[in-house]
Amino acid sequence: MKDRKTLVIATGNPNKLIEIQSLLKDFPIAVKSKDEAGLESVEIEETGTTFEENALLKAKGIQQYTKTMVLADDSGIAVDALGGAPGVYSARYAGEEANDQKNNEKLLSALKEVPEEKRGAEFVCAIVLLFPDGKVLKARGVTRGRIGFEKKGRGGFGYDPLFELPEGKTMAELTAKEKNEISHRGKALRKIKKLLEEEFRKEPKE
User: Fold this and answer.
1) At 199, which helix (H) or strand (E)?
2) What radius of gyration, in Å, describes the C-alpha atoms of the chain?
């Protein structure tokens, strides 16, 4: 690796980008979004059956254009009463034209008859950091909670307004700082950051 390090984040989701950039802002690398790298029109098909597979697919798809380090993640919500669904299909749970509102409505409908004690769920995030030489770093973060009976809070995105933490607040009721400290993505990113720091320490001193 050279002194000037560039990391392209393989996402077009502005909310996700803000979270990742915030958690990596003190790291000694130049962090660029997919759009900033001139790849706003590039879409990678997520055909994997696991979060890890999809993250690697996205990283490889972007790296063929950038030739830089690429960080990609795939995340979603797994609901106990639904056998782990929607899982890797979280973003399109309500169909190809799905959005946050439609996905949340479908999840509430699917759990309509499920009592509070059986509404356990977890947010899962798998992150892959792909180096130009093909080396791969992987990390996974999980946050347990339950699905509420109605949306609460104005922050976050996705299923955050429905995902209740043990203390009762939803993810959408947390500040950005609070969310980063306990979120699945925050946990996975801190693991990746630690692995990346270890890689940098291996570099020969000039």
Assistant:
1) helix 184-201
2) 18
| Sequential pLDDT tens for the chain (206 residues) | 433 478 899 987 777 778 777 777 777 788 888 998 899 999 898 899 999 999 999 999 999 999 899 999 999 999 999 999 999 999 999 998 999 999 999 999 999 999 999 999 999 999 999 999 999 999 999 999 999 999 999 998 999 999 999 999 999 999 988 998 999 999 999 999 899 888 877 765 55
Which one, of 52, 88, 93, 49, lies nearest residue 72 by Cα?
52
What is the phi/psi pair of residue 139, to 5°? -150, 150
> For domain 6-201, is the CATH number 3.90.950.10?
yes
Q: Is 74 one of the catalytic residues?
A: yes
Asked if 175 and 155 touch (Cβ cutoff 8 Å), the reply is yes
- 122 closest CA partner among 180, 82, 155: 82
Q: Active site residue: 26, 73, 74, 80, which one?
A: 74
Every domain of the chain and the residues it spans: 6-201
Residues 41-75 as b/e (b if ≥16 CB within 10 A, e otherwise) read: ebebebebeebbbbbbbbbbbbbeebebbbbbbbb
**In sequence order, what DSSP letters do the residues of 139-162 get, joined into one string?**
EEEEEEEEE-SS---SSS-TTTTT
Strands 163-164 and 30-33: unpaired
pTM: 0.89
Output the six-digit token pair for 76: 């979603």
